[in-house]
Specification:
about 250 residues; alpha/beta; Rossmann fold; 9 helices; about 45% helix; about 15% strand; globular; binds magnesium ion
């Protein structure tokens, strides 16, 4: 259930602001072209590339857990450099471009229905909007690209209330993520009970946010709208906020 006042809103990214779509059908061909373009032809196919990365990730997670990090997060560029030393020859910007191009071969993303409208309305109301995302650097580029297609930019978000797990070394559903958000909200004089967390996963987003005292909205397929339970699409959330008098009704499509 969403109740006023809502003074800040945090969005999860994948399957919330961004729709995750399958890998392109020609991913393997494009991978070969990408490797050729960057003189990385010694890298194997996509599947074997990922297998070696997974070994580095597993090693990282074991090490992190031994020092008490319950939900570790990796830094993807570092993982790839450790797994594939040939990539250490790329400049940081070239590595970033390479990993963004690689991510687009694993999945594609588009801004979710209703996201642009909702972000625009929140901005118009001067509601601080943040992010709470298990993410990697390419996530920011995917989001930026999705926003740009709708005439928006990353200016929709206040950087000081954006949690990107790769910057922190830990990830949702670690309760430290949500206590970090609580601490960041203090500078705005906003309490958890006045902030809304919007996400698609009960285990990663909704339950840990509620445990910390946040209001929540769980994104769901259209047809599963239940304002009383705080569940529905982003369009449903816009309508719910409009019903509460927080957003103008006329702009909700
Ligand atoms: Mg998600």
């Amino acid at each position: 259930m969403v109740t006023l006042p809502i003074q800040a809103v945090f969005f999860d990214v994948y399957n919330t602001l961004l729709k995750l779509n399958p890998a392109p059908a020609d991913a393997n061909d494009r991978w070969r072209q990408l490797k050729k373009h960057l003189n990385l032809e010694s890298l194997p196919d996509l599947a074997r590339f990922q297998e070696a990365n997974e070994i580095v990730i597993a090693r990282h997670h074991v090490r992190a857990r031994t020092i008490g990090i319950g939900y570790p997060e990796i830094y993807w560029p570092q993982v790839v450099k450790l797994a594939w030393p040939v990539t250490t020859g790329l400049s940081p910007a070239a590595l970033d471009d390479f990993l963004f191009a690689h991510a687009r071969l694993v999945h594609s993303t588009t801004l979710n229905d209703g996201a642009a409208n909702l972000l625009g309305e929140l901005r118009g109301r001067k509601i601080p909007v943040g992010i709470v995302s298990n993410a990697q650097p390419y996530t920011l580029r995917e989001l930026e690209e999705g926003l740009k297609k709708q005439g928006l930019s990353m200016d929709c978000f206040r950087p000081e209330i954006c949690f990107w797990s790769f910057e922190s070394g830990f990830s949702k559903p670690d309760p430290h993520v949500f206590s970090w958000l609580e601490g960041r909200l203090r500078r705005f004089g906003i309490q958890c009970s006045e902030a809304l967390i919007v996400g698609d996963r009960l285990d990663n987003d909704i339950l840990p946010a509620q445990s910390q005292g946040f209001q929540t909205w769980m994104t769901a397929e259209s047809g599963a709208h239940s304002p009383a339970n705080g569940t529905g699409t982003l369009l449903d959330l816009s309508k719910t906020l409009a019903t509460l008098g927080m957003l103008p009704q006329k702009n909700i499509r």
